[in-house]
Design a protein that fits this description.
alpha/beta, two-stranded antiparallel ribbon, 9 strands
Length: about 375
């Protein structure tokens, strides 16, 4: 082989390697300058942050600490509530507000102070003494929220309980310990066996079908969603059992224990017709049970130019990792600056501030949210 050619190839290879090293080094420095501290880009839906719970499926792991979404601080206290502040015995003269629900109330994608409850706490500092507890759990369904409410929230003796409702609260979005399906089947079986429920023959037959579906389907969410078009009556029964019945029961327990229960309805960016129909039914249910609600449909309507179409998954093919992180970081930061939602469900800092402002006005200033 020509010696000159070999030398030329070697020089080119070394030059390329050095250039690549400089580029990677520059990307690392730039990522560090942006504040990207989480190299794994952990989402707030990982098994490390949950603890197995035999009656609910899972709860937040107590005393957990991590960084997610590059620079979002995630902490839980000794009871698994978000934050590091300990929950003490009730203090006379201090009103206790507990927020519970799923990733929206928890505050996925934002630091604690920029969550709904973080903004609400800042607004309440100018009023009478209030204590805010964030008991949200990422991935919860309405039925899990009922179980959590009974077991962990009512013993806190709250004055007010805020519960967020989103379009995906029919079933859990997470099942980290593979025990939620069994809990759901047991719940359905108890309803079927309880003669006091006075189910019609059609409802009994439908309930048996639902139990078979939960026992057999590997992809329950997908199978249930298919029922919307294939078997709408069966889908309506599932929605009733996993959304309407649990929410109604929470309202009954709240009235029994003297707790002010306020549901916060968070609209989706899509499928508004179905969501509006469901929410209108839940509003009537809550009113009949003496509970309350704040509807954010008119407050959280993004303009078309505000929508962020890229998502972190769009950058899965990108190499090197540092460049992928930078692109994802810029997408998320852009969403935080310009959009009311991080994605179709999770509010950004701006979205959380809007929600908190409306909840504050409803709770403190008596704004009429039932228009």
């Amino acid at each position: 082989m020509n010696t000159t050619l070999v030398k030329g190839l070697c020089v080119s290879a070394v030059t390329f390697a050095l250039s690549l090293g400089v580029i990677l080094g520059a990307l690392k420095l730039y990522a560090s300058w942006l504040g990207i501290t989480d190299l794994g880009f952990r989402y707030e839906n990982q098994i490390e942050m949950w603890d197995s719970e035999s009656t609910i499926g899972f709860t937040n792991l107590p005393n957990f600490s991590a960084v997610s979404f590059f620079n979002v601080q995630v902490h839980t206290n000794e009871r698994g509530f978000r934050g590091t502040r300990r929950v003490m015995e009730r203090t006379e003269g201090v009103s206790r507000i507990v927020g519970m629900g799923d990733s929206v109330m928890w505050g996925t994608g934002v630091n604690e102070q920029n969550s709904i409850l973080g903004y609400l706490e800042k607004a309440l500092t100018h009023k009478s003494p209030y204590e805010i507890i964030n008991a949200g759990v990422v991935g919860y369904s309405s039925y899990q929220e009922l179980l959590y409410f009974q077991k962990y929230v009512l013993p806190l003796r709250p004055d007010v309980v805020l519960v967020n409702y989103c379009e995906n609260d029919l079933l859990p979005t997470e099942d980290p310990f593979r025990n939620v399906r069994e809990i759901s089947v047991q719940y359905l079986s108890n309803i079927l066996e309880n003669h006091a429920n006075a189910l019609s023959p059609d409802e009994k037959l439908g309930l048996k079908q639902v139990i078979r579906l939960f026992n057999s389907s590997e992809r329950v969410w997908h199978a249930v969603n298919e029922l919307k078009s294939k078997a709408p009556d069966l889908y309506s029964l599932i929605w009733k059992l996993f959304v309407s019945v649990p929410i109604g029961r929470m309202a009954e327990l709240s009235r029994q224990f003297g707790v002010r229960l306020v549901f916060v309805f968070i609209p989706p960016q899509r499928n508004h017709e179905e969501y509006i129909r469901d929410v209108e039914e839940l509003k009537r249910l809550l009113i009949s049970k003496g509970a309350e609600f704040v509807d954010l449909q008119s407050a959280l309507v993004p303009e078309p130019h505000e929508l962020i179409y890229e998502s972190p998954s769009d950058f899965a093919w990108v190499w090197p990792r540092e460049l992928k992180q930078i692109l994802m970081y810029r997408t998320l930061e852009s969403a935080r600056r310009r959009n009311k939602f991080l994605d179709s469900v999770h509010p950004t800092d701006k979205g959380n501030a809007i929600i908190a402002e409306n909840v504050y006005r409803y709770l403190i200033e008596g704004a009429d949210s039932k228009k």
